[in-house]
Amino acid sequence: MGVFEVSVIFLLSLVTMTSAEPPGCKIRITARGLEMLKYQTKKFVEEELSNISIPEMSGAEGRFQYTIKDVKITKLDLNSDLRFQPDVGLIFEVQNSSITLNFQRRILYWLFYDEGAINASAEGVNIFTALHLSRDQEGRLKISNITCDATIAKMRARFSGTLGRVYDFIATFLTTGMRFILNKQICPALDHAALVLVNQFLETIPVRSDVDNYVGIDYSLLSDPVVTESSLDMDFRGMFYYLKNESDTLVNYAVNPVVREYDRMIYLALSEYFFDSGLYSYYKGGLFQMQIANERMSKDLEMLLRTTYFGTIMILDPALIEHPMSLEFEVTAPPRSTIKTSGASVAVNTNVKILVLPPGKAPVQLSSMTMEAKFNAKVSMKGKRLAIHLDLRRFKIFSNQSALESLALIPLQGPLKTMLQISVVPLINNYTKRGVQIPLPDGIDFNEEVVEYHNGYIIVGANIHFITGLREIIERRLSGYTDNAI
């Protein structure tokens, strides 16, 4: 291979590396988080194995004719473990466990006929199941494959009834067949549980869905999950988009969030891009516009505006002095977020127009100014919804027309800032407190969360708990109900 070929391969690999889309959202589930899933997984497997259907058995052994039916699993005592398997996904393993069964017998021996119940137990039950996790074509986390191996060391049967002891000698024959059938039923039951039912549970994770009537969010996986001995790491696109023009999205140039912690059950990392794409989408939707007039404007502010622009009004038309005043706000560019170790902030540039509203006539513009504002942004979690609370930190206005008018606007700085804090910011916070759902399945919520700020991204470390059992979530999914509306 020549130098030219080597150079081309190197450049192509470099382009591939640099063109990879960084995630706007990352989730890490740690070994501690997997501990929380163990109980639910064990309970779910026990429920699935309890529903195993074993067909009626009939036959003859010497002078004995028998029929066994109504086989029911009455008890499972599973010693199970759930752990990460690097480069695969999850391992669910059962060792040295037991299964108790009950079934009805009918036995004919010569002229004697007997029927009754048989209590049996499968002992030394061992199950090894590997769940292969991957990203499907829609960008959803799914179990793509399952490998299963199940063995039963031995099976015992205890006969009841008047001839119970007589039948003990055929117990070995009956239990051998029962063990064979039961053993053949375990893996198919677990295959169905994983590939069908658990995947339906994973389908409750939002991938691409509406946030409200204006924007949606894309939580598709960018690649297969990365599994190590201590964690499961998933990279999501984490991008908002405007519903009426989904192709007009913000390009992600933000830093790639880095999660180094393992102490808590789960970690959520969100880059500046996650927030900026949301601000960009709402801006494209024209939502960053507001008018303060009539009952929404305080008397003190209106009087200050009249005093400030008294000369302008008198020059234009003295009759305007009696008419209502209006403030119109229009954000002139997509707001941008900044995340540092000291906290998060949002910078907004707004064009502010001051107008008089004569009844039945077009508004008369008195002035146009630029407002520069910076808000402190506090991120919090409630359940599995991410909310933001804003506080006005910096505020500056200056005239678009002249430096002299900018000096005249200095008395308006304080009142306008107060007006924003009292009137506008609460409206925004009332909307943002609804939050947006993060990519977790139904029935799982965050608690005891801690938010850490890094340069370019935030990390929310938390513990998780099930508010609903795994089976209940799946049954609700099958019935067509889901609570993952954002």
What is the mean predicted local confidence, pLDDT?
A: 85
Output the structural class.
Answer: alpha+beta
C-alpha-based Rg, rounded: 34 Å
Shape: elongated
- Runs in which pLDDT lies below 50 for 5 or more consecutive residues are 3-18
Characterize the largest beta sheet: strand count, sense, and whether it forms a barrel.
7 strands, antiparallel
First-residue to last-residue Cα separation: 54 Å
**Helical percent range?**
25-40%
> Would you count the extended β strands for me?
22
What oligomerization state is this entry in? single chain
Number of DSSP helical runs: 9
What does this structure look like?
There is one protein chain. 28% of the residues lie in helices and 43% in strands. The radius of gyration is 34 Å and the shape is elongated. Helix 3 (171-202) packs across helix 9 and helix 5 packs antiparallel against helix 8 (410-432). 30% of the residues are buried. The strands form 4 sheets. Strands 14, 15, 16, 17, 18, 19 and 20 form a 7-stranded antiparallel β-sheet that branches. Strands 10-11-1-13-22-21 form a 6-stranded antiparallel β-sheet. Strands 2, 3, 4, 5, 6 and 7 form a 6-stranded antiparallel β-sheet that branches. By secondary structure, it is α+β, with helices and mostly antiparallel strands.
What attributes characterize this protein structure?
alpha+beta, elongated, 9 helices, 22 strands, about 475 residues, about 45% strand, disordered N terminus
Give a quick summary of the entry.
The protein has 486 residues and is of the alpha+beta class.
List the topology elements:
Elements: H1 3-19, E1 25-30, H2 31-50, E2 57-61, E3 64-77, E4 80-85, E5 89-109, E6 112-135, E7 141-159, H3 171-202, E8 208-210, E9 215-218, E10 226-227, E11 231-236, E12 239-242, E13 266-271, H4 272-284, E14 289-293, H5 299-308, H6 310-316, E15 325-331, E16 336-340, E17 343-356, E18 364-382, E19 385-399, H7 403-408, H8 410-432, E20 436-437, E21 444-454, E22 457-466, H9 470-478
Antiparallel strand pairs: 1-11, 1-13, 2-3, 3-5, 4-5, 5-6, 6-7, 8-9, 9-12, 10-11, 13-22, 14-15, 15-17, 16-17, 17-18, 18-19, 19-20, 21-22
Helix pairs in contact: 3-9, 5-8
